Amino acid sequence: MKIKLTGIFVDDQQKALDFYTKVLGFKKSHDIPAGDYRWIQLASPEGGDAELSLEPNVNPAAKAFQKALFDQGIPITAFEVDDLESEFRKLSDLDVVFTTEPTNAGGVSLAVFVDTCGNLIQIYQPEAE
Fold this sequence. Notes:
This protein is of the alpha/beta class. It has one domain (5-126): 2,3-Dihydroxybiphenyl 1,2-Dioxygenase, domain 1. The protein contains three helices and eight strands; from the N terminus they run βαβββαβαβββ. The strands form two sheets. Strands 1-4-3-2 form a four-stranded mixed beta sheet. The longest helix is centred in the middle third of the chain and has 13 residues, at 60-72. The chain starts with a strand and ends with a strand.
């Protein structure tokens, strides 16, 4: 068993696609019409097996969950980066809003930003061993 696909709910699929590809640099691997919505799958520009699905947030329970996490400052997911400070500067220069600037959290440094589509996303860099 392996993780191949994980999804996050977004309040606007096109806005999310633009943010995740144009700002974060993910590559679109699938964009298929699915009724009123789309099946959008993204791959990391750095490769790897796992991909991210941008799910339309039309379920009232999912909307409540997304809002509760956001209001509590809890990221919906986390992405590992090689150089947190560099990534923070690059994203800040692209006007990405951070709710937590780079912070050492014991064994890992992290920062949290708003994805413009209803979620907080954590980026982190493990400490070198």
